[in-house]
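Notebook, p. 212. Picked up where the previous page left off. The plan for this session was modest: take the two constructs that came back from the sequencing core last week, fold each one, and keep the raw output in the notebook itself so nobody has to go hunting through shared drives later. Recording the first one now, exactly as returned: residue sequence, then the structure token string.
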Amino acid sequence: MERVRRTLLRETAHQVIRDAIVRGDLAPGSVVRDADLAEELGLSRAPVRAALARLADEGLIETKPQSHTRVTPLLSRDVRDAAAVVRAMHELAARTAVPLLTGADCAAMAAANDRFATAARAGDVDAALRADDELHDVLVRACGNRAVAATIDRYTPLIRRLERLRFSAAAGQQSVALHDRLIAACRARDAAAATAVTTEIWRELEDLAD
């Protein structure tokens, strides 16, 4: 039981610190110290160090021995690389999932897009990005490919940092329209069309990096 508790603490520390980086609470280039983070989170240093090591592997933290540990700078090259990988995974998810979707799945996507549209109009970036994740997660779950899900989970935070900085109501409305086309293709069980729209959605994020 003790091992489970420690693992959960490590996972929780990872999630909290990752969210803080994505939101910009820990800004690109800012120095982080495990002791300070541990005190702020009410944890020992061990799970925080484990979380920072994982975040370094994910590209959100960089460490220079005998120098510093800091949040990685926001570089267009890194965002484009991550967006290309995430796009490929979502394309695979769409191709695989569309023939398997139920009416309830399509309804869930439409409801998520409604929430996205409402949040975008209100300028609520957190709610908009959360709804966007919920919409695309329907396809990711339906495809049943754990490697796809894990890869998306790993690389999406690198993109989200830039999305938050560049988010606008106008861009949000464009995304609503793309989502509508994606949902229509899913309802028609047209995997090729759904994949093509998915490509369009995620290529926009690659272009955003420029």
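Okay, moving on. Second construct, recorded in the same format:
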Amino acid sequence: MPRGRYSLHDLHDHTPLGEEHFHCAPGPSGWRYVSQTTSPSGDHLGSVDLALDELGRPIRLELHSASWQIRGAALEGVTWVRTDPTGAHATEGNVRAHAFSGTSPAFLIALTRLLRLTPDSPETRVRVVTFTDPVLAPRTDDQSWALVNSEAHATDNGPLIVDEYQVSALDTGERHTVHIAGDVVLAAPGIELEHLETPPSPRAPRPTD
């Protein structure tokens, strides 16, 4: 069960946004990621609880940020309920999308487990619903993912496969690179792995012919 800590930074000016303390693990029905986020001063900011089925679909999502809350799942696309800090108002949403997204590294891992790309796969288009901090406002984004490189690195626990993905935002054409080992993000825009107590779990199995 990988357990560790990410540092989160602003994508534009690299201002520290805080840290995410996480643990994640594959299970008999899929994969689960649980984390707590803190501010640079150590104050609690929110939490993430994401569970995927064996095909990488989000069967349960619970997000908390600034007293806002999201509960969601894959249902006729993706469906969610957003609750305000007072708890008095809840708004339902549904989009014909493949997955959820947000600032947490969990969502990058979730997409790789859903897409299960190989180096021979063409660029794959995916539609996601992104919840923006701090009020978890939903926004629908179209992205393109490609696995451009996969390398084995020797470690004390055996070879570690590091996958390099190129991710494109289809509305702006902006591209960035994400490095992932199993179910741990090594580096991505705004995300740095600062500490890892246990090795990553194996990556999701590739599709077979």
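Notes on construct two before I forget. The chain has a mean pLDDT of 92.
Flagging for discussion at group meeting.
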